[in-house]
Design brief:
181 residues, alpha+beta, SH3 type barrels, three-stranded antiparallel sheet, 6 strands, 29% helix
């Protein structure tokens, strides 16, 4: 179900107006299942940033982080001042970084990448090799300025031949799977 932008703004306006008027806010979330208790819906707090990478060039280490709230990534050097977050320690064997920022000290593990393989295609006909016949020319025929009726007849015949060739290939592809079943 698609909700219009106007409807969303109207709901947001009503919510803001009810908060300003001091009306109580329901403790039951409209976004959780009705049989689910409110306490079970609460999740553990996730860290404000994600540890995404390490680059070592010579003796210099750079650490890559991603801020999901800002949708922004940034790089910080070891004990580098001036950034919102400061990496105070890095353990290469466990791939964890100790980060200070926002009044907190966090120990973040390197983000694990999830790679999924694409499923194998099903019922794909193999390409048909036609080594005996001459292959048709690739691409359209060259453009002739001020074509004669003979040139125009050749062009139309080439188009008709290409249409016949493609229909034959399509028919061959349609009939081939039936023969194998």
């Amino acid at each position: 179900m698609k909700v219009s932008l106007v409807f969303r703004w109207a709901v947001l306006g009503l919510a803001a107006a009810s908060l300003e008027a001091g009306l109580p806010v329901s403790p039951v979330s409209p976004f959780q299942a009705p049989d689910q208790p409110a306490a079970a819906a609460a999740t553990t707090e996730s860290p404000p940033i994600e540890f995404r990478g390490v680059v070592v060039i010579g003796s210099r280490q750079q650490f890559g982080f991603f801020d999901p709230a800002k949708r922004q990534s940034f790089w910080v050097g070891l004990n580098e001042a001036g950034a919102d977050y400061r990496v105070t320690r890095y353990e290469a064997d466990t791939e964890t970084a100790t980060v200070e920022g926002g009044g907190r000290t966090l120990t973040l593990a390197l983000h694990k990448v999830k790679i999924a393989s694409a499923p194998a295609p099903v019922n794909v006909a193999p390409p048909v090799a036609n080594f005996g016949a001459a292959s048709p020319p690739i691409g359209p025929p060259p453009v002739v300025l001020n074509p004669t009726p003979a040139d125009e007849a050749k062009r139309l015949e080439a188009i008709a031949a290409e249409v016949r060739r493609r229909r034959a290939l399509r028919q061959q592809t349609v009939t081939t799977p039936e023969k194998t079943q």
